[in-house]
């Protein structure tokens, strides 16, 4: 919800954003933080929004660089590669039996 609002606000102002000065960008991110805080009762600052958006772009670029038509999609975060097609099994510690649940992301070693 908050993340989608962050993306939507930046997307809506994309053309203008690239023409903004540094101080105008600071005001832009401050207005985004204000909108998110008002809508969701949170306490984000302009720097939080700016850094989160930069991280999203970085992770998207890493994912795109590590994907090809012949491979399953993957993404890289914190120098670890995650394949979206593999599913490791994790033990549910809240369960009284030995049933396990599957995760949709698998951590694989980087080659």
From TrEMBL:
Which residue intervals are annotated with compositional bias (Low complexity) in the record?
A: 92-104
Which Pfam families does the record match to this protein? Myb_DNA-bind_4
Myb/SANT-like DNA-binding domain segment(s): 4-75
Coiled-coil residues: none
Q: Which spans does this entry mark as compositional bias, Polar residues?
A: 65-88
Gene3D superfamilies xref list:
Homeodomain-like (1.10.10.60)
**Region annotation (Disordered) ranges:** 65-111
What residues form the membrane-spanning segments?
A: none
Q: Which domain of life is it from?
A: Eukaryota
Q: What is this protein called?
A: 14315_t:CDS:1
The species this protein was found in: Dentiscutata erythropus
